[in-house]
Amino acid sequence: VHFAFTGQQIEFRDTVRRVLARECTTDDLRAAFAAPTARTARWATLAELGVVGLSVPEAHGGLGLGLLDLVLLLEEAGRVALPEPLMATSALAAPLLGDLEGAGPAGATRVRSWLEEIAAGSITAAVGPPPGCPAPVAGAVGADLLVLTTPGPEDGPEVHVVEAGAAEVRPITSLDPTRRLGAVTWEPTADTRLASGSRAASTILATSDRAAVATAAELLGVTDRMVVMAADYAKERKQFGRPIGAFQAVKHLLAGAEVKLEFARPLVYGAAWALDQGAPDASRSASAAKACASDAAVEAARVSLQVHGAIGYTWESDLHLFLKRAWALSEAWGSAAEHRRRVLASLLAPA
Amino acid sequence: VVAENLVVCQISPDTPDTLEPMDPTMDTPMDLRYTDAQEAFREEARTWLSAHAPAPHALASLDTAEGFEAHRAWERTMFADRWSVVSWPEEYGGRGVGILEWLIFEEEYWRAQAPLRVSQNGIFLLAPTLSEFGTDQQKARFLPPMASGEEIWCQGWSEPDAGSDLAGIRSRARRAGSDDGWVLTGQKTWASRGAFAEWCFGLFRTDPEAERHRGLTYFLVEMDSPGVTVRPIPQIDGETGFAELFFEEVFVPDSQVLGGVGRGWNVAMATAGSERGLSLRSPARYSEAATRLVALYAERLALDPERAVLTADAVAQAWIDAEAYRLNTLWTATRVLDGGSVGSEASANKIHWSETDLAIHRAALALLGPAAELHGGAVDAPWLDGYLFALAGPIYAGTNEIQRNVVAERMLGLPRG
User: Fold this and answer.
1) Is there a contact between B414 and A259 if contact means CB atoms under 8 Å apart?
2) CA–CA dist A96, A107 (Å, integer)
3) B351:A348 CB<8 A
4) How many CA atoms lie within 13 A of A242 on its CB side?
5) What is the number of other CB atoms lying within 10 angstroms of the CB of residue A311?
6) Backbone dihedral angles phi then psi of residue A98, each to the nearest 5 degrees
7) Which of B30, B34, B417 sits opposite A4 (nearest CB)?
């Protein structure tokens, strides 16, 4: 057992943290709220750093690394509420395309070029929910590539990839406009199909598990940001002649949120490791991670708003930029309750 | 080096908190698997326990005179085959294994549902403190009989007017006229196992003039010393788990001062770190209870599905909380093995394990419904006793309210109140 990140992973995280602190300020977020865009100068910067193509195979211009290498970076994305689709493109679409590269003989060339374009930062992707889940597609508006699923005719589910021009995307308003939600209408054809049958089913399961962990990692970052913002505010704001953070009622709210965050963290890191390893209980680990990360985020959102008081309830305060991301992601790719149900089902299943 | 080995977890409350590996050039990749040698150690422990451990709940409660002696006999059995303190150096009766092997042993111990550790105040709390602050003579004198169960320890910290505000203790120690020791006077309370223990580690005020954290000294006191009176206190379950201790002119020689005169607060904080951090409550305790909770759920789902499904969310979350604690412990253990330390995260840890214990037992009682109030072995697992014990968790080892203050002040930097 060695449950720690490597020096290299920590250094990469620190670099990304520094870059994002500069390139993704709350002013930048407000601009993104006003005009949400998938590909930006910031996206190009992240691609140059190797972040975007991190899980694209080396042969196609990426770093060929796993989810464990990505979780710390997703956490940084969450910390700044990054408006660009790092999670969908780099944590979901790239590994899915990498896995299916050899699957469809007709599509192999196309898949390769998509992977190369992802690594180069020239396209972004959105990934739809698993079949039977009526959620809109996050990041669909403005995405270059849409990874979508269908329940399939009789042979089980199918995975399709559709380029932007071939689908109709109707924008749906989210409380966080940078989510760029859309309802996608498209025609599944043999040409768009990348996988079917059991291959598609296992791809969909793997993608859902990765999505749970990747979303949980982003939530860790958002949660940390909200707790820090509220703690900073509690040190500054004075009432009754003292900083409000000196009052136990305030301390205990923030300490409770902090403890939830710190105990969600090892679940997320452990689940990323388990998925990369293909561990037998990896799906359960993914669900445990998402359940706790969602709960920690919702609690931190409640507490940080409460500690800020009325100023936190304004548009002028930066807090809402993070609250909205936390609320959205806490329900995305399975709520805490859904993942708890999945954990229990897995525990009850005969070994 | 031998002495450091004893410590399951070195606690240094004054070092800065960090979650990063100490050495940034470290390139060991993450790995959550145990080695073959560690799995072999697990097998050896499991085999020994299955051959020697009493049947689950076979011994009388350790909070009774009869049960106390039965538990002491079990400690002696373990000690004879070097299983009572596996992480200690061999010279003190251990096997000199590392922190990960200790965690493995704990997993097997709880899986076997072996008896509660009557020597826990000694082996889990005092021993790491002795290792850090004790002289070689003190270690040689106190550790072996602690490991064998021959000498059982209790903790003399709280007083009627000093609980959460521990630095407010009033029990005094003045220099003996013979100038070779101290004379203790005062009253301690809530001493777990105080009714039957042979020894007590306690905090006494040696300098009433000094700032209140500085005038304290940590003493090791023999309970049959002249002037010590013990008054057992029946607990919420009716058993005498803890006691009041009265000290009237009790002589304690200089050789039984731990860590230096006036340094009692620092020494006590090391003990408290063990109590809240890795040492006292290993994750196996909760993982095992959570596994039994899931089994109870499966059983009740067949018998009383309507009630069972109402608890599904709580059962799952309790299991997840135990798993989070297990992983967090591996995270901390890795940091300690890489040369790091445990600071104020021990307070977050204590909040988490105490609340997890409650969550597990509350879910079990909800599953049992009307059967939950039945006492005396009416159900397979003593969930009710476990619940009563869990209720103490947020109180002992420093209340969770005090721990939340520590988290807020030291992890989040909020001003002291």
Assistant:
1) no
2) 13
3) no
4) 11
5) 11
6) -60, -40
7) B30
- In 3D space, the residue among A224, A209, A226 whose CA is nearest the CA of residue A290 turns out to be A209
Q: How far is A333 from chain B (nearest CA, A)?
A: 18
Q: pTM of this prediction? A: 0.95
Q: How far apart are CA A247 and CA B415, in angstroms?
A: 9
Spell out which residues of chain B touch residue A252, defining contact as CB-CB under 8 Å.
Answer: 401, 404-405, 408
Residues of B identified as active-site: 275
Burial A49-77 (b: 16+ CB within 10 A, else e): bbbbbbbbbeebbbbebbbbbbbbbbbbb
- Helix (H/G/I), strand (E/B), else coil: B365: helix
In terms of Cα–Cα distance, which of A43, A9, A14, A180 is closest to A122?
A43
Distance CA B210, CA B216 (A): 9
ipTM for the predicted complex: 0.96
A105 pLDDT band, cuts 50/70/90, is: low
Cα B410 to chain centroid, rounded: 23
Neighbours of A24 (CB within 10 A): 23
Predicted confidence at residue B285, as pLDDT, reads: 95
C-beta atoms of A270 and B325 within 8 A:
no
Contacts with A, B 194-213, CB within 8 Å: none
- Helix ranges (H only) for chain A are 7-23, 26-34, 41-49, 67-79, 86, 94-100, 108-120, 197-236, 248-277, 282-308, 319-331, 336-348
Contact A182, A140 (CB under 8 A): yes
d(CA A221, CA A62): 24
- What is the rounded average pLDDT of the residues B182-203? 96
Sole residue written with tokens 């989510």: A179
